UniProtKB/TrEMBL annotation:
Superkingdom, natural source: Bacteria
Source organism per UniProt: Clostridium sardiniense
Record domain Nitrite/Sulfite reductase ferredoxin-like: where: 20-85
Protein name: Nitrite reductase
Keywords annotated in UniProt: 4Fe-4S, Heme, Iron, Iron-sulfur, Metal-binding, Oxidoreductase
């Protein structure tokens, strides 16, 4: 077997952000950003690790994490040790709440909310929470990201109420990419900013309670029905 590891050992490593490559003896290690941001000093340290233990390349992922490929099996412990010393975070896998992503609404002229602040608050509270399956969260700043909001298990998107011009928030449920892609469905109810963390907690708790092992939120919604799911979350 590739890398002389069992399927269970590979799964365990992947959950920790250490991914076996198809090239024998090599692994890719995933480093977590803070909702899409690395500090400049962190980028320098990551580049140094890539030069020292990898092939000098860094790869960005769709969830705004960074991966260093071509780490030899015998160097994994050294990379982990040095990463801890430099306060770099390795992880982002397994049946958990994954790394939270955010668009650049905090600095974009179209942004209706501070996406970075909100995403950090959500990640600090929910990241790594063990669930029946993977759970992905996105925070977006305006309707230009409507399509992106449809690709996560849970997404938050601000919109302007045309009657009073106040900012309200749409919550999208049950999106996923991959082999069984499905667009998230926006809840009928809109929310205020101070309600968002509580809503995220309710959504995740509902998924945790009702999902079968390895069942994604999209499948839960298809099985139970979006009307009942939304009703239970609001209740």
């Amino acid at each position: 077997m590739s890398n002389n590891l069992t399927a269970e050992e590979k799964k365990s490593l992947k959950a920790k952000g250490i991914i076996a490559q198809k090239q024998d003896g090599y692994f890719t290690i995933r480093f977590l950003s803070k909702v899409g941001y690395f500090k400049s000093d962190e980028m320098i340290e990551l580049a140094n690790l890539s030069k020292k233990y990898g092939n000098g390349e860094l790869s960005l992922t769709s969830r705004l994490t960074l991966e260093i490929p071509y780490i030899k099996k015998e160097d994994i412990d050294n990379v982990i040790k040095e990463s801890k010393e430099k306060k770099l975070r390795i992880g982002g896998g397994g049946d958990t709440v994954r790394a939270v992503i955010a668009c650049k609404g905090s600095v974009c002229t179209h942004g209706l909310t501070d996406t970075n602040k909100l995403a950090i608050e959500i990640e600090d509270r929910f990241f790594g929470r063990i669930l029946p399956g993977k759970f992905k969260i996105g925070v977006f700043g305006c309707v230009n990201s409507y399509g992106k909001a449809q690709s996560n298990d849970l997404s938050i998107l601000p919109v302007r109420n045309l009657s009073n011009l106040e900012v309200e928030y749409k919550i999208f449920l049950g999106g996923r990419l991959g082999r069984q892609a499905r667009l998230a469905i926006p809840m009928e109810k809109r929310f205020k900013e101070n309600e968002l963390i509580e809503v995220v907690e309710k959504v995740i708790s509902y998924y945790e309670k009702n999902a079968r092992t390895k069942e994604r939120f999209a499948e839960v919604i298809d099985r139970i029905g979006i009307e009942e799911v939304e009703s239970e979350i609001i209740k």
